[in-house]
Amino acid sequence: MSPDDARRREQIRQRMLMQALRTGQPGALTGWTRAPARADLARGLTVYAANAAVNAERALAARYPTVQAMLGDETFAPMARAFWRHSPPARGDLAQWGDDLPAFLADAAQLAELPYLADAARLDDAVARGEGAADVAPDLSTLMRLGDTDPERLVLRPAPGLALVESAHPVVTVWRAHHDPQQTALADPFAEARLALAEQRAETALVWRQGWVVRVAAVDVPTTDFLRRTLLQGQALAGALEVPDFDFAHWLAPAVADGLLVRIDVTL
C-alpha cells in the first residue's frame, strides 16, 4: 500500500469512527475491526466516547477558561459534551479544536440568560490564538518612512496574533475579573464586572502578545476604527488618518513600545 493510499484509508477510518461516536452505532466499524474484538465493539465504543468527551471537556476548558469559570463545572461539562457531539474534532490534536464554540454558545437557548457568554468565548479564543502566534522580530527602522513617504503608500503591519473583539457587552471587564492579577486580588474581584453588566456597557478588546505575555486592553471607538482599517484590513495609512477623534501621533509611540506593529511597508 502506498503512503497516499494508507493516508486515505486512515482518513476514511477516522470519519467512520467519528460517525459511530456521534450516532452511537458501531455498525460502520465492523469491517475495520478484527474478528475477536467485534463482540465487544459496542462496549468499546461507549468507553472510547466517554474518554473522548472528558478529553474534549479539558481541551475546551484550556482554550476557553473564562467560559468555564462563568458556567462552573456542573454546567460546563454537559455543554462541552453537547458541543463535542455537535462539532466533533476533525483531527487528533484537541488543542486545535473548538473554533465553533462561540457560535454554538450564541445559539444555545438554555444559555440565553448569559448573552455576553459568546463574546467572552470570542475573547478567550483571541487570547489562545495570541499565545500560539508566531514570533516576528520588529523592523523599527521602517518607522523612518513616516517622515519621507506619502501616507497613501504606507501600510502598517501588525504583530502576529493581534485581534479586535468588538462586543455589545463589557467583555474586557469580565475577562479582567477572572484573569487580571490586580483585579483577582481584590476582596470582590467581580464588583466592577457586575456594574458594567448592569450598565450594559459595550467594550472592544484589543488582544496582542507583548513578548511572551498576551495582553488584553479596552480601546475606544476611534482607536477601534483605526486599528481595524490599518492593522487588520491593511488599508493605507492616509485613509485611516481621517478617522474622527483619533490622534495618530499620540498613539504611535505607545503602540511601538507595546509591540502592536512590527513594521511599515511602502507600496508602489
Summarize the structure in words.
This protein is mainly alpha-helical and about 270 residues long. Helices cover about 55% and strands about 10% of the residues. The chain has 14 helices and 5 strands. The strands form 2 sheets. The chain has a 3-stranded antiparallel sheet with strand order 2-3-4. A two-stranded antiparallel sheet has the order 1-5. A hairpin with a 2-residue loop joins strand 3 and strand 4. It is globular. The mean pLDDT is about 85.
Topology summary:
Blueprint: H1 3-23, H2 35-38, H3 41-63, H4 65-71, H5 73-86, H6 101-107, H7 117-131, H8 145-148, E1 154-158, E2 163-167, H9 171-179, H10 181-184, H11 191-198, E3 203-210, E4 213-219, H12 221-232, H13 237-240, H14 248-258, E5 261-266
Antiparallel strand pairs: 1-5, 2-3, 3-4
